[in-house]
Amino acid sequence: MSSYVGDAADAPKFQTAAKNLVRNTQVRHNVKRATDVIRNKRAKVVAEMPDWEQLRDSGHEIKQHVMRHLDFYLEQFEKNCTAAGGTVHWARDADEANSIIVGLVKAQQAKEVIKVKTMTSDEIRLNVALEKAGITPYETDLADLIVQLGEDKPSHIVVPALHRNRMEIRQIFLDKMNLTELSDKPEDLAGAARSYLREKFLRVPVAISGANFAIADTGSICVVESEGNGRMCISLPRVLISLVGIEKIIPTFQDLEVFLQTLPRSATGERMNPYNSIWTGVTPDDGPQEFHVVLLDNGRTKVLADREARETLDCIRCGACLNACPVYRQTGGHAYGSMYGGPIGAILTPQLQSMQHSQTLPYASSLCGACYEVCPVKINIPEILVHLRGKVVENGDAPFEEKMAMKAAAWVLESPEHMDRARKLGRIAQKPFVTNGVIKHLPFGLDAWTSVRDLPAMPAESFREWWVKREKGSNG
Amino acid sequence: MQISLFITCYNDTLFPQTGKAVVSVLEKLGHSVEFRPAQTCCGQMHYNTGYQQEALPMMEHFLEVYRGAEVVCIPSSSCVAMIRDHYPKMAAASGDASIKRAVKNLLPRVFEFTELLVDHLGVTDVGAFFPHAVALHPSCHSLRSLKLGDRPAKLLGNVRGLTLVDLPNSEECCGFGGTFAIKNADVSAAMLSDKIHSLLNSGAEICAAVDNSCLMHIGGALSRQRSGMRVLHLAEILASRDGLEAAK
Question: What's the burial of A15, exposed, middle or buried (CB within 10 Å: 0-12/13-18/19+)?
Fold first, then answer.
C-alpha cells in the first residue's frame, strides 16, 4: 500500500529542478507568454462581474461546509449514484484505485481505454498501471495528448503542455502520428489530433474520466472542458469509469451556479466552458450502459484532519494561482516534481505524500500573496505554506546550517544588548568584504545573495546609536 | 500626538537614515516621537521560515515593549503584516489569555508609516521638495496584505518637483521573500531580473517603496549592474526639503 503523488517521491528538490529550469530560455519564454495570455483574459472577464467577491465567498463557504460534513455528503452521493444505476467503489490509496480500475477494464476484455483529462489519474499513475496490465490508454485532451506522445510530463493544471510551443508540438505529432507533412498552424495541429483521436472515440469500448464536481443530492458527475473530447468520452463508449477525489463533492445541483461561473473565468478566462457535461447513472440505450465511480482518498482524509491546512481540499483546480505566481512563471510546472504545480501544488503535494522529498515545496514561494488574491474559493495559500514550513522545522527536516543560523538570529534578536554586540562584531567581520560601501562577495551559503546582488555594508552608526546621541544632545 | 517608533531590526542596523527621515517628517508635522530602547524584532523572519516557536518570545517582547503606547509607527509594511496577520493566530495558539488580550489591545494602534500619515493624521502633503523621476514599487505586503492602495502614491504625488513615473507590471513580486532569496536563490534572481527590467524601462531615476527589505534586494541588483538608478525608502523622499537626501 502506498499513497504516492505521481513521481513526487523521486523528484529532485525544488531548488535543484528550478536551477536548471530558470536557465532554460525556451521554457521560460513559453511559460511566460502563455500565462500572460491567460492572466489577461482572466482579468478581463473577472472585472465584468459585479459580484465576483461574493461568488468567491460563496465558493469558499460551500467548500468549507462540505469539508465539515464530508462523510455525510459522500454517503449521500453513493446512495443517489447507485439508485441511478451507477456503481460506487471506494479506494483508500493509489494502489487500490488502480487495481479497481484495471479490474473493471479487464472485465470488458478491453485492451485499450480512452481518457478525458484527469489529473487524479496522473496522481495515482494510472497509465503505468494500465500499461503493466497490457491495456493502452489514449489521452484525448489535446494538451494531454501532446504530453503523452512527447513522453513528457504535464507542466500546468489546466494547460499541461503550456511549456511547449507549436514548432515543438508539430515535431511530436510528425514523429508519433506517422505523418509525412504537417504545418505548425494551430488549426492544422488540431486537425491532426482530431483525425488521430476520432477513430479511437468510435472504436474503444471503455472511457476513463475525472470529475470537476460530484453532486451529492443527485448522484451526478460534472466535467467541464473546451474541446468536446470529454463529451465524446462520456457518451460514445459502452463503459465509463470516473475517478473522483473525495474532495470533489458539492452538496446540491444548485451549487453549480457558483462554480460554473468562477471556474471557467479563473481557468481559461472564458465566461462559460464550451462543454459542460453532467450525467447521472445509466440511461437505457443511451450513452454508456455501465457506469462506475471510484472515490479516492489517497491522503485526503489526512489533509482534512489538519485544521490549519484543510482549505487545501477546497481547490477546484482552475490553475489561476499558477498563472499569477511569479515563482511558477519563472520555472514552469516541472520544478514541482508533481502534476500539481505552482502554489496549490506547493501545498497539496507535500501533504498528500507525507512530505518526503516534497518538503522543499512549501519554501517554493516568496509569500507574495498573488495566489490568494486570484483564488476563486479563497484558499489562503501563503498561510498554509507557512504552516507547512513549521511542520518541516518541527519534524527536524530543515537544513542544519539554517537551523544554526536561525538559532543564532533568535539569540541576537532576544534583546537590544545582544543586537548591539552582534552589530559590533559584524562591523569588524564585514571589513575585508566592503568596497565602496557595499559587499560584493560573501563566503559560504551567503554567496546565494551576493552572486547577483550587492549587499549594503553595515553603517558605522545604527539608528539606535544615533537616537541615544540625539537625546543626550537635546538634554545637555 | 505621542508616536512610538518601531524602527524594525534591519532598519535599525542597515538603514538608519530611514528612521531619521520618519522622525523628521513626524516632528515637522508637530508630533512628538519616542523610541523605546528595549525594542528588537517582530519575529517575521523566524515565523515565515517555519521557526514559529522562536518567533513567539519575540512577539511577547514586542507586546511588552509597546504596552500603553498611544500609536506605534512602523516604516515597513511586511513587519506590520506580520503583526496584523499572524499575532492574533500566534496568541490564540499560545492559549494564554493575557497574550490574547495584549494583542487585541495593541493591534488597532499599530500603523505602517503611510497609513499613519494618510488615515490617522489625515496628511497627504508633508511639504517635501524632491525634483526627481521616481517609480514606486508597491511591495507585496503593502499591496495585498495591508492594502495600502494609493496612499504611498498620493504622498509622493504631493511632493514638489517630483515626477511619479509609471512602473510596468508593478504588482509583481521582486523576488525577495525573506529567506526565499537565499533558499531559492535562482528563482529569486530570475524574478529580480524581471523587476529590474521593468524599472529600467520606466525611465525613473529612483525606485521608492515602503519596505527597505525589497529595496535592499532591488537596490543590490541595480548597484551590481551599474544601472545608474538607485533606491530610496518613501520616508526619505518625504523628509527632503532641499531636493537632497538626508545625510547618511
Answer: middle
Question: Chain B closest CA to A452's CA: distance in Å?
Answer: 6
Q: What is the ipTM of this complex?
A: 0.96
Query: How high is the pLDDT of residue B247?
Result: 44
CA gap A343, A364 in Å, rounded = 8
What pLDDT does residue A446 have?
81
CA-closest candidate to residue A348, choices A361, A357, A329, A335: A361
Calpha distance A251→A260 (Å, rounded):
15
Q: Which amino acid is at A38?
A: I
Q: Which residues have a Cβ under 8 Å from the Cβ of B98 and sit 6 or more positions away?
A: none
For A:382-401, CB contacts with B below 8 A are 383, 386, 389-394, 398
- Collect all residues of chain A within an 8 Å Cβ-Cβ radius of residue B175: 326, 366
pLDDT at A3: 58
- Does A325 touch chain B if contact means CB atoms closer than 8 Å? no
- Partners of B14 on chain A (C-beta within 8 Å) are 456, 458-459
Reported as a single tens digit per residue, the pLDDT across B106-141 is: 999 999 999 999 999 999 999 999 999 999 999 999
A322 contacts A341 by C-beta, under 8 angstroms:
yes
Mutate which: A53, A307, A347, A368, vs B, most B CBs within 10 A = A368
Give the structural domain span for B204: 133-238
pLDDT by residue (tens digit) across A425-444?
Answer: 999 999 999 998 999 999 87
Number of domains in chain A: 2
Do B116 and B146 sit in the same domain of this protein?
no
Alpha-carbon gap, residue B101 to B107, rounded angstroms: 10
User: Tens of pLDDT along B79-110?
Assistant: 999 999 999 999 999 999 999 999 999 999 99
- Which residue among B120, B151, B168 closes a domain? B120
Compute the distance between CA of residue A316 and CA of residue A296 in angstroms, rounded to an integer.
Answer: 16
Which residues of A are less than 8 Å from B19 in CB distance? 463, 466-467
Contacts of B85 in chain A (CB under 8 A): 383
Is the separation of the CB atoms in A208 and A185 below 8 Å?
no
Which residue of B173, B190, B219 is in closest CB contact with A368? B173
Q: How would you list the strands of the sheet with A206-209, edge to edge?
A: A87-91, A290-296, A239-245, A206-209, A112-115, A136-139
Say if residue B63 is in the same domain as residue B113: yes
Q: Which of the listed residues B59, B85, B120 is the one where a domain comes to its end?
A: B120
Which of B7, B145, B191 comes nearest A326 by C-beta? B191
For A227-265, write each residue's pLDDT tens digit.
999 999 999 999 999 999 999 999 999 999 999 999 999
- Nearest chain B CA: its distance from A292 CA (Å): 43
Q: Are residues B79 and B167 in the same domain?
A: no
Instruction: Please state, rounded to an integer, the average pLDDT across all residues of chain B.
Output: 96
**A2, pLDDT greater than 60:** no
Q: Are residues B46 and B178 in contact, defined by beta-carbon separation less than 8 angstroms?
A: no
Statement to judge: residues A289 and A422 lie in one domain: no
Whether A366 is covered by a domain: the verdict is no
- How do beta strands A220-225 and A136-139 pair? unpaired
List CB contacts of B115: < 8 A, sequence separation 6 or more. B80, B146, B148, B151
- Contact at CB, A366 and B45, closer than 8 angstroms: no
The whole-angstrom separation of Cα A383 and Cα B88 is 13
